[in-house]
Specification:
Elements: H1 2-18, H2 33-45, H3 64-68, H4 82-89, H5 99-110, E1 119-123, H6 130-139, E2 143-147, H7 154-158, E3 163-166, E4 184-187, E5 191-192, E6 198-199, E7 212-213, H8 220-242
Parallel strand pairs: 1-2, 1-3, 3-4, 4-7
Antiparallel strand pairs: 5-6
Helix pairs in contact: 1-8, 5-6, 5-8
The structure holds nicotinamide-adenine-dinucleotide (NAD).
Nicotinamide-adenine-dinucleotide binds next to helix 8.
């Protein structure tokens, strides 16, 4: 997957920058579920490894949920495991948090934006972005609406958002018509246009109405990698603390 190659290269670069040892295991398209499960089992047992991430998407014949849930919870630095999403839902916030929504929260706080009491709309309900994003905003006392592909009156719902998170995976779908005046707009989407340029889920005309809009590239993407490094450091620290 060409996009995955770029993401993996960026993650290796980030590991080198912060001084983490990293290993990449490249499997063939034709690899079986058993091969991948066996690799994860070995990495789970390897004392020298603190974090494991499986770069998605996987080939169609492999069950992604089964693979993700085979990772030891304490080594799930992506925060994708049902266990880790579950602790987010119960508000424990004591295990790895999915990196993209975690990065969004770090961005909001870095810019002094407190979600408490604010109407927040998250477009998208995936397990890796939309759902954990909504749970994190809820934990921060926002009033959260989750919108998705079956949502009716999406534009009107978004027009009520003080904080709007666009994670629908639809290029430039969120135009200025969706935006409440002075809203904070977080663009999670990343797409390559026919002219080769990158764009997000948000149209540039959103800037005319919003008080803040994250850029693509350069906004949520780098934050995701930063939080991956943080989750890995925390996993190593937690292991040392227990031993
Ligand atoms: P996904 O395809 O798994 O989920 C998309 C969600 O959007 C679904 O829940 C769907 O119901 C909803 N949706 C789709 N079309 C819609 C529409 N027209 N109106 C309302 N809702 C709609 O995608 P994902 O993995 O959650 O990723 C979303 C986007 O974020 C993608 O563009 C992806 O490339 C990007 N992404 C970026 C980063 C990053 O680091 N910047 C990380 C993860 C994902």
């Amino acid at each position: 997957n060409p996009a995955s190659k770029v993401y993996v290269a960026n993650k290796i670069k980030a590991c080198n920058t912060v001084g983490f040892h990293s290993m990449t295991h490249k499997l063939e398209d034709s690899s079986s579920e058993e091969e991948l499960l066996s690799l994860i089992d070995n990495l789970n047992k390897d004392e020298s490894i603190d974090g494991i991430l499986v770069q998605l998407p996987l080939p169609k014949h492999i069950n992604e949920l089964k693979i993700i849930n085979a990772i030891a919870p304490e080594k799930d630095v992506d925060g994708f495991l049902a266990h880790n999403l579950g602790t987010l839902a119960t508000g424990e916030l004591n295990s790895a948090i999915a990196c993209t929504p975690f990065g969004v929260m770090a961005l909001l706080y870095a810019y002094g934006i407190d979600p408490s009491g604010k109407n927040s709309v998250v477009i998208g309900r995936s397990n890796i972005v939309g759902k954990p994003m909504s749970l994190l905003l809820l934990s921060a006392d926002a009033t959260v609406t989750m919108a998705h592909s079956k949502t009716q009156n999406l534009i009107q719902i978004c027009q009520n958002a003080d904080i709007l998170v666009a994670a629908a995976g639809q290029p430039e779908m969120v135009t200025k018509d969706f935006i409440k005046k002075d809203a904070i707009v977080i663009d999670v989407g990343i797409h390559r246009k026919e002219n080769g340029k990158l764009c997000g889920d948000t149209h540039q005309n959103a800037k005319e109405i919003a008080s803040a809009l994250t850029p693509v590239p350069g906004g949520v993407g780098p934050m995701t990698i930063a939080m991956l490094m943080l989750n890995t450091a925390l996993a190593a620290w937690n292991k040392d603390r227990k031993s």
